[in-house]
Write a structure and sequence with these properties.
Layout: H1 7-15, E1 23-27, E2 30-36, H2 42-55, E3 65-68, E4 74-80, E5 93-97, E6 100-106, H3 118-123, E7 126-128, E8 134-135, E9 144-151, H4 182-217, H5 224-241, H6 244-272, H7 291-295
Antiparallel strand pairs: 1-6, 2-4, 2-5, 3-4, 3-8, 6-9, 7-9
Keywords: Membrane, Transmembrane, Transmembrane helix
Transmembrane segments: 194-216, 228-260
Amino acid sequence: MSNDYFPIEQLIAQQLPEAMALQLHVLPAHQELIAPLPTGYVGPVMAAAEQWLKVHGYRTLGPWMIAWGPTGQPQLRRPVSGALKAIREKDFQTVEVPEQLLLAVPFVGWPVLPHNFTQPVNNVGLNIMGSPLLLALTDSPPTMAWVPVVPRGTNTLFSIERSKIGLLPAPPKPGKQISMLDAWRRAGYTLGRFATIIIGGLGFIISLTVIMGVLIGGEPIASIQGVAYVYTIITGFLAVLWSQAIIITLIIIFAIIGAYKMNAIANWNRFWQQRPVPPELLLGSRGDGQVGTWLG
């Protein structure tokens, strides 16, 4: 880290000298319980969530954690077994969480928001990718946060929202080098999802056009005139879709996406060249409030 400290870093350095060596950890893929905290008081929510997990047959894998949602609302989270299908209900839900790279950041003071950690995280060549996590059960106020991060300039290799459209390449493994040729495979996946969305939209437009045309023209869809009308509409759209201009545009888009992916892969490989593979967080704790049970 740099010797030029900002106020929050000065506090960290004074209170916790070990902050000079921020530690990376890998959180394995799992499911996670998410429970809103409307009042900020965890006791009743924990009790209700425990009962909900038992009813749905989940097994807990780690301690209770506090995080903040996209709009800043507090949430209670807990890693749970991923053998069951994720459930979404009014009060509680479980979500699939892909493998994450977490940075253990000592901190002082409140509120615990992502921008509180921006400078320490950036100083070690990382970008924040989500809300910090804190242990919810502690004998004293928490002084360690686990912040989801990625190496700087590699955001395009990860998906914040797990898209259900098209094929998704597996996220890179922390500490592992990636072949530059992989950039074009990833670009193909991205272009494929883009093309899927475009074709789906065109299909909807064609269907709407056909329905409106048949209704306005008064011809039944099964008649010769109706079939001819539908055929004309579809062939017209296909002619536009496979035109030279569209194909050239797709090639240019593919090249641009590939260049971005190659740059991201170069940044990824550069970051891990002289760094060991981070240790995994152990998800065996039942939430007794001790940091060591989470870090192993």
